[in-house]
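Chain A, query sequence.
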Amino acid sequence: MSQTSLDDDELFGEAANEMRSDVEASLAEARGALPDGDAVWDVDADNTLGVLNALKGALDVGDAEDSLRDAKKWYTMGERADAFEDADDLAEEIETVEDLISDVEDAREQVGDLTSTIPQLRSTLEEFEDAPEADTDADAEEAEA
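Chain A, predicted structure.
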């Protein structure tokens, strides 16, 4: 084997190790950017809408999506270049983080729906409470007759 080939193989090996490190670092950043479990569970608010708004804020995935995208980008490059000897662990970790981000985003969307529904529901219930009891008055009049 010529010296040039050996140097190329060494460089490729180094590049492959760096790509793997980049994928792992990006995955760690994605995990770190996800909400903390306590932040989702413990909220401080005076009313239901406050709780929902706090929860919605706590369910923000932040930079996790960008970090996951970087991990997937470097993983894809490494896979296409056949640079990884064994990348099953990386693929599993990417899928796990991707699923978790999706779950958090779904929960945030559901909380957002509730955040917009609850004030309207409260208004409707208050209007209903304040409405005159027409049926009860009519029933009383029928009973007298």
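The mean pLDDT is 89. The chain has one domain: 3-144.
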